[in-house]
Amino acid sequence: MKQTHYNIIIAVLLLVIVGLALNMHSVPKGPKRADALDDPSRKQLLTWTAPDTTDIPFTKNGEMIRYGRELIVHTARYFGPKGSISRAANGLNCENCHIAAGTRPFGNNFSKVTAAYPKYNPRRDQYVSVAGRVNGCMQRSMNGKALDSTSREMKAFIAYFKWIGKGVDKSTPLFGEGTEKLAFLNRAADPQKGKLIFMNNCASCHGSNGAGKLAADSTEYLYPPLWGRYSYNRGAGLFRLSKFASYVKNNMPFGTTYHNPVLTEEQAWDVAAFVDSQPHPPFKEVAKDWPDISEKPYDDPLGPYADTFPEAQHKYGPFPGIIKGELAKSKINRN
Length: 335
Hints:
Elements: H1 2-26, H2 40-43, E1 46-47, H3 60-73, H4 75-79, H5 99-102, H6 113-116, E2 119-121, E3 126-128, H7 130-139, H8 152-164, E4 174-175, H9 191-201, H10 203-206, E5 213-214, E6 221-223, H11 241-249, H12 265-276, H13 311-316, H14 320-334
Parallel strand pairs: 1-4
Antiparallel strand pairs: 2-3, 5-6
Helix pairs in contact: 3-8, 9-12, 11-12
């Protein structure tokens, strides 16, 4: 009787062990990212964490910091087509491109704004201040007009950036700063493949026509337009494929984070190609960009270029050939 009892217990234990083993093998495992969080080389980088808004002091400077954050989150309420201060922009909010008021890792955050500026901008062959960087966004991403650099609003933007980036040194690499740089495809990014990805993952918020969705009071967008009259213009950073793809990878569809991406890198490139192939407003100042044409980025979609690669390849890739050409050219120039 006892032997039978022991046999039953052993049989049950064996079944449990086999079940656990099968279950472990049945758990789907996604592809291991080359730059995963457990990569030792990435762990050596300092991780930037934005300060908590509850720590903003109740002082005059604290008031400006809060106002600056408000302008980031609800830019269109103040400068959009129905803006309370002016009609200087297209209706987008800064937060549409700088996730969580510029505090999200790999969400185009503001960690190094005040540490990095002023800095030289080869696109205009001049040094640019923080105010100049804000106005670059106003004129390009917002397809609007520059703000008065001495205005209360500009001072509030700068106060917020200083608070966000307190203690940050521009020479220290930070894990999560800016956006994640993606590996290049070995082919051109495909707008047609991107269209299917967009319809399946993005159209529910941005609309199949890319027009976005307005809030109930029509002063700002709940989901921004990605092309058309009220989107960023052809002089904006997002009109460059690498910028758009890098932004999309860890932030879209809405709710995506670096820890839980939805799209693959290949899909991010393709959906970026689709969105940037759609109509965007012109930028009348674009002819003044890149006075030194040899400084123009590999994926600037608007010619002319210092090399012989066609405009379509500069816009959609493949980019490795262009990059190699640039490296070879720089070596010749150094010799």
